[in-house]
Amino acid sequence: QVRLVESGGGLAQAGGSLRLSCVASGLTFSRYVMGWFRQAPGKEREFVSAISWNDDRIYYADSVKGRFTISRDNAKNTVYLQMNSLKPEDTAVYYCAADYTVTGRPKTDTYYYEYWGQGTQVTVSS
User: Fold this and answer.
1) Do 17 and 86 contact (CB within 8 A), yes or no?
2) Quick one: pLDDT at residue 103?
3) Where are the beta strands (DSSP E) in the chain?
């Protein structure tokens, strides 16, 4: 049974930082592209960042580029999202997701991700 468990969300002030973690089990982690998505109330789930098997390809949404950093530790089956310079508009539930792909190319569309975590709330106050 595949499980993705996010942690690290919470309340931060604008300009502050949070680090999200997502631990995966039940899959061969090193063969999965990992992504982070977020969903604010009343909005569609949107892409935040994704990372290939071996870190050689990383994508960011324009809205977080330069502020967020994605990384992974295949030995720990964990993907991270370091979020700096947080803004109130970053407030959302953040989800990690896993995509098995033979190409290893990260994707930005939710459609391609087979497994999802339960989400962790991030709230940024102004």
Assistant:
1) yes
2) 83
3) 3-7, 10-13, 18-25, 32-39, 46-51, 58-60, 68-73, 78-83, 92-100, 115-116, 120-125
